[in-house]
Amino acid sequence: MARKPKKQRNAEQVVRQQRVRDAARTKRRPSRDDIARMLLWQMIVGLQGNRSDARAVLDRMRDEVVGGLERQGFDVRQSEDVFEALVEKYSDRLFPFRPKWHLGSKGGPSSS
Fold first, then answer.
1. What b/e sequence results for 69-97 when a residue is b if at least 16 CB atoms lie within 10 Å of its CB, and e otherwise?
2. How many domains does the chain have?
3. Which of 24, 71, 94, 103 has the most beta carbons within 10 angstroms of its beta carbon?
């Protein structure tokens, strides 16, 4: 069987990926990024509320995260800036995430 043209393969991939996204939305399945954002927020808020050495621990976490980003090719200074901006944003301990209205009302912010 001959290989399909790249344009056709790309078009089929778009359809497959849309099916995956639709299925995830129907199942109300969080993405890897949803989990990563929630985990980072919980770590920052938890550290700031429960430890006297919170800044030292955050600095170590920043260094580890920035080191990983640098290995991927990201700029160190820019990575530090983004990390510190997130720490600043999350330091008020308020829940910073928008409701996912496309998931419907089941389990949403107003159904508690």
1. beeeeeeeeebbeebeebbeebeeeeeee
2. 1
3. 103
Q: Are 87 and 42 in contact (CB under 8 A)?
A: no
CA angle centred on 62, ends 52 and 71, rounded to 5°:
160
What residues make up the domain containing 62? 31-94
Pairwise CA distance, residues 46 & 68, whole Å: 22
- Whether residue 51 lies inside any domain: the answer is yes
pLDDT 10s digits, 45-76: 888 877 889 899 999 999 999 999 999 999 99
- What's the rounded Cα separation, in Å, for the pair 74 and 8? 33
What 3-state DSSP class applies to 89?
helix
Round to the nearest angstrom and report the end-to-end CA distance of the chain: 55
Q: How many C-beta atoms lie closer than 10 Å to residue 41's C-beta?
A: 17
Question: Measured between alpha carbons, how far is 78 from 64 in angstroms, rounded to an integer?
Answer: 15
In a domain, 21, yes or no: no
